[in-house]
Design a protein that fits this description.
Layout: E1 40-44, E2 47-68, E3 75-91, E4 97-113, E5 118-132, E6 141-152, E7 159-170, E8 173-180, H1 182-187, H2 196-202
Antiparallel strand pairs: 1-2, 2-3, 3-4, 4-5, 5-6, 6-7, 7-8
Length: about 200
């Protein structure tokens, strides 16, 4: 799953929503940390659940971490596509955030080289689950990501890059990995060879 700022591709733990017998949910202004204002929040027993859906589009957005070639022939890969994200935050009876989940699906997506006009299309979907091991404290997050993204040369129809599987990140770095993750190989271990097929298709 490609997220260059925190690469990875969870067993998402079942979160109990059983209300306390008599406790009232915290006021929305008391939630810690407060959700962005595009969320809609509602009490569930003594707890609070906040949800949102976001639609975003990228148009020729440079990916400065993704460079093909060297010297005068080098070029930056640009990202394009539409993404729908469904977001959920769960707060405990004290108003502290305990988890957040993002389900995202990309459509009309492709990487491009504006110097040649060539593109490599891709599909991507993933689930990002953050568990705050200390409620309300983002520094305690354990993030688990599961999903798949596949890049296809539209000329040859060959799959030139694939990321699939599960990765778990803790506050101090990578905790667990299963599957194939070109992004981790590149960013964590410095192996850029995974991009060779994409770079060739865009050159």
């Amino acid at each position: 799953m490609f997220r260059i700022n925190k690469p990875a591709l969870i067993a998402v733990a079942a979160i109990s929503l059983v209300p306390a017998a008599s406790a009232a949910p915290p006021a929305l202004g008391d939630l810690n940390p407060p959700p962005p204002d595009f969320y809609t929040c509602k009490p569930v027993g003594a707890r609070t659940i906040c949800t949102a859906t976001i639609h975003e589009s990228k148009v020729a957005e440079p990916q400065t971490e993704l460079i093909c070639g060297e010297g005068a022939s080098a070029f930056t890969i640009y990202d394009n596509g539409d993404v729908e994200s469904r977001l959920t935050r769960r707060y405990n009876a004290d108003g502290n955030l305990t988890s957040r989940v993002e389900h995202e699906v990309w459509t009309n997506s492709f990487w491009s080289n504006p110097l040649t006009g060539k593109v490599v299309t891709y599909t991507q979907r993933g689930t990002f689950f953050d568990e705050l091991t200390v409620p309300g404290d983002f520094d305690s997050v354990v993030e688990t990501i599961v999903g798949e993204n596949v890049y296809t040369d539209p000329t040859t129809h060959k799959k030139v890059l694939r990321g699939v599987g599960r990765v778990v990140w803790g506050p101090d770095g990578l905790l667990a990995e299963s599957g194939k993750h070109w992004d981790i190989d590149m960013v964590v271990f410095g192996d850029t060879s995974a991009l060779d097929g994409v770079c060739a298709a865009l050159s």
